[in-house]
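Exercise: predict the fold of this chain.
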Amino acid sequence: MARRNRMPPWHEHVRLQNGRELLIRPIRPEDAGPMQAAFTLLEPDEIRQRFLHPMKELSSTQAEQLTRPDPRRDFALVAAEPLPPGEALVGAVARISIHDDGKDAEFAILVSHYINGMGLGRHLMRRLVRWAKGRKVQRVYGHVLESNLPMQALAASLGFRREATLEPGLVRVVLDLPPPKPKPVPVPSMPPAADGAKT
């Protein structure tokens, strides 16, 4: 997947291995309608892997909640057609939300089967982790179906460890983030001794 062109923060054009061009950018309220439309194109397994249970549709309320993240604690990216929000078909969504304690953040990623297997999930996950590091989060985690082996493999390749959960059929993948390095304190330089100073 090749990247090109400089864009505003968290915006970038990408070209997938099949030549398809997408725009990765923060989610917008205008994406609610296209996301509802794209939901009907998803396969049942895709929906279950993202939402962890079957769903027949994405309601207007759910779409609005997804497209209006709280800027104090949430961050969400979409991979969409390079068209204005509201017109662009959304092919992937990546979201992360910080807990009230400020230490943990939960992620969720959905990549449509039309563009799956081309490195987009890895790319989006790295962006979520980068954002979390900037917010001084200590742990990033997500719940994954035991049957979702590709997502588990992706998480493991990025350093996530696997933990058991109390809910049958689910595993938890956790990434510990290193604390930010303290900035070095500048040492004041000693002023030069005046000429002719006596010791």
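Check your answer against the key: The beta strands are 2-4, 12-15, 21-26, 74-80, 90-98, 104-111, 139-145, 161-164, 170-176.
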